[in-house]
Design goal:
The chain is 22% helix and 20% strand. By secondary structure, the protein is of the alpha/beta class. The chain has three domains: 99 residues, Alpha-Beta Plaits; 353 residues, 3-Layer(aba) Sandwich (Rossmann fold); 115 residues, Immunoglobulin-like. Strand 8 and strand 9 form a beta hairpin. It binds calcium ion (2 copies).
Length: 631
Amino acid sequence: MFSRPIPRLLAGLLAVVALSAQAAPPVDPPAYGLIVGYRAEVDALQAVNRDRGPWKANSPQAREHWREAVDRSRERSQRLAVEVGVRIQGVGEAGNAALLRFDAPLRGQALADAMRRVRLHPDVAWVAPNVLERRTQTLPNDPQFSLQWHLQAPVAPLLSALNLPQAWARTTGNAGVVAVVDSGVRFDHPDLAGKLLPGYDFVSELDIANDGNGRDSDASDPGDWVSAADLTKPVFDLCTQSDSSWHGTFIAGQIGALSNNSLGVAGLSWNARVLPVRVSGKCGALVSDLLDGVRWAAGLPVAGAPVNPNPARIINLSFGGSSACTPDYQSTVDAVSNAGALLVVAAGNNSSALRRPADCRGVMAVAAVDKAGAKAWYSSFGTNLALAAPGGSDDDGPTGLLRSTDNAGATTPVAYNISGYYGDKQGTSFSAPQAAGVAALMLSVNPLLTPADLMYRMKLGARPHVQSALPECSALNPTVCKCTTSTCGAGLLDAANAVQLASGPAAIIQRIGTVAPGAAITLDGSASVAATGQIVAYQWTQISGPAVVISGASQPIASATLPGVEARYEFQLKVTDNSTPTALTGADIVSVTAAYPPAAPSGGGGGMGWAWGMALWAWVLALGWARRARS
Ligand SMILES: [Ca+2]
Ligand SMILES: [Ca+2]
């Protein structure tokens, strides 16, 4: 399913989506015109305000008076543009001020010159650029939120950050269930209070379980430390001595820590409920326990276990084995997908080719990137990855790690004080939950999305991989390297884009860029997607620029021939689906610049790189059970 040759096409489309939703404010945003305040003596619009007269503000007389004032103001503005030599395509109002609309956006020195010329006119009191305002962002009050760099807006140097504040402005999530199939959780963490469902413990072997019994209804994490004494047992042959990881507690906090509670960290979804499904203990998880746990998480029956009263639509599995995907894994992946659950898995921490479950069909496999968006040194990579998300990297020093809920116990858990305990980790174990948490936000906007819908939209909304001087990821450059769509998935996970794409159908337009005046252009919206059902109507309209005739305006692919003049055009595509009871509409705009000399058509797309299947890898370990990817 994921081996189809979509990367180059997707990259081109991604540029459209990312361009319209990128949160990073340019240092110098383009101005679409100038907002002008005239001196009181010549200001027709302000005169209306002062002159309240005998009319109510919404009376026919008041409307007529305003219309006359607007006419006077617009005449004034037309003259102003001529007098100061600023090229405009029209005039209008900005609230109670006048507006000069540039015929093309200006920035930098050109904008400064235009503003200066207008400001020096004797009739003008003040002038301001007409720029795009950013959507209001929502920030939680958790004191350690500022340390959670991965949740912030993607502004340099945090180019890989997930853009949560803008997503949270739309939704902070609902009480949907996200399963964490992992080492269990510490139910007593104060920043997880009320967020954890009862869950279940699927660890069957006593030596591994470390809780004195086999499967039972207690999903709490007793610790998974491995002692020197443990290493004398054959079952731990390939293990190393280690402290307890509190792996599941950390991931639970990433997805659903109690948020905006003036305590500790924020979770990706403020309202999600986390279903802890314990499958691992000392040294890792048996495949049988792991796959049973995944089934149960999705609400599928597991012999000997009670019915799961809280089936998850999203399952996080941050475990991986050392072999290629096997039928036991694949059949379980297929079963939970058919049951309507998205299985989000870690790429693996071997900085090499993907191994199970990341190479199974139908999983959403997530690579790890560092702050700058380069592949983290440890992350595995390959063609089956959906996308990349921050996983933390100690290459960036201690602050390059991810922060979440933790426990201070080196072996058994220690009690929390009122302010909890937080740790810093790195690994693809922690890049996968970023996608699980974003998927939870998406489902809160649109609960009808299928696992395939969720993954497709997250990929579609991913920002392009960061370009850098690093070598592209390959067998020769497997550690810190430049991601491409063929090595790290569709791009960088963007929560705001994903949440936006979750609602309704998405109009996706192939980017056009700059063409020669007189050119015939193709308006291609055939990649548009419906949230549910299918798109049943397309409608192209022209938003700006010299009038052109759109041929096939109700078709997915339309065309137009531009007049032979330099100009900027905007075309909008509206798509409508057949969802019931109300059809939903999505829209996007593509801009076209006609200019001499014609610039090269711009477009996205990373290099395809070499074929992964050609790489030879040494499969050195063939464990009978999956070992936890070390953090
Ligand atoms: Ca147990
Ligand atoms: Ca908190």
